Amino acid sequence: MIKTLVSPCSVYGFGSQKLKFDRSCKKVKPRAVRMELTITQPDDWHLHLRDNDLLQAVVPHSASTFKRAIVMPNLKPPVTTTAAAITYRESIMKALPSGTSFDPLMTLYLTDKTQPDEIKLARESGVVYAVKLYPAGATTNSQDGVTDLFGKCLPVLEEMVKQNMPLLVHGEVTDPSIDVFDREKIFIETVLQPLIQRLPQLKVVMEHITTMDAVNFVESCKEGSVGATVTPQHLLLNRNALFQGGLQPHNYCLPVLKREIHREAIVKAVTSGSKKFFLGTDSAPHERTRKETSCGCAGIYSAPVALSLYAKVFDEAGALDKLEAFTSFNGPDFYGLPRNSSKITLKKSPWKVPDVFSFSFGEIVPMFAGETLQWQPLN
């Protein structure tokens, strides 16, 4: 629901220029207008919560906005078993602020040694909702990932089909001879397309898509079998953001930002109303000194600003009427889960993103730090 409060003799075109007149119909200087947007409370279908002090610090930001989240398993050591996933979930629940209803949906970290029986245990647990594929060496804490998907993991993938357990894919090849900006495209051609052809009943989420190639691939697949999560950074930033005004470590993530033509293709896809794309922040916190260093970590911390940024994208595209489906409907529909019954309201009122969040162990710099955003969730 979109609510606009206007003054007498005001005329508004949605997404167009505002014209104002006084009671004699003479044009007058526009006055401030309040706009509110109420939507079904969203879920985050790709979230990094980390553990220990970092978990304690960041989980309130996600819990204040999102009802549920698919929690990534790339800890040290990784969450490779159902028992470990249950233990990790208990840690998350203990770290939540009192009174919150946030529900972490757990995942398993796929390795060359994962067994089909573990998938059965995961399904029976009631807390594990997916399995994550990290090609070994592709991103943060992925050194224990898969080295040979078809040679070593096929029985597990076949069991996932039987259990209707989605595979969440970090879609990049890790061959050092492949240009970093081409790794998603090559992964689609050499891994993802053959995988879908071999196991057409396997539900697959291509995570944090970054290219026109990924958009085209997802759109070519059967609805309900292949979907994609989309981050705020890949909707709002292109690779120039890594270098403008000097090297920008807080805009560095994996998959890395791409050319403007790819960003535009992703925006067009998510604002089109397609059911195949849904919210997944890939919010990935690192302490400031681990980003601002000679060999900085990949990851953008977007949890505190994510919903505001998604609203910005849809507002600028003239597609606010499609925001709710992207944030709140497409994800649960793909996973076969009920949509949330709770609501959240965003108010169009300028606010400044904090420069940093300070904790006992250090600082975390959020996405769009120090910048002014127009939409703000009302908690």
From TrEMBL:
Pfam family, one: Amidohydro_1
Entry annotated with the keyword Hydrolase: yes
Pathway: Pyrimidine metabolism; UMP biosynthesis via de novo pathway; (S)-dihydroorotate from bicarbonate: step 3/3
Keywords: Hydrolase, Metal-binding, Pyrimidine biosynthesis, Zinc
Top-rank taxon, per record: Eukaryota
Amidohydrolase-related domain: residues covered: 44-365
Enzyme Commission number(s) of this protein: 3.5.2.3
SUPFAM superfamilies: Metallo-dependent hydrolases
Cited InterPro entries: Amidohydro-rel (IPR006680), DHOdimr (IPR004721), Dihydroorotase_CS (IPR002195), Metal_Hydrolase (IPR032466)
Residue ranges crossing the lipid bilayer per the database entry: none
Similarity field: Belongs to the metallo-dependent hydrolases superfamily. DHOase family. Class II DHOase subfamily.
Classification via NCBIfam families: pyrC_dimer (TIGR00856)
Protein name: dihydroorotase
Organism of origin: Camelina sativa (False flax)
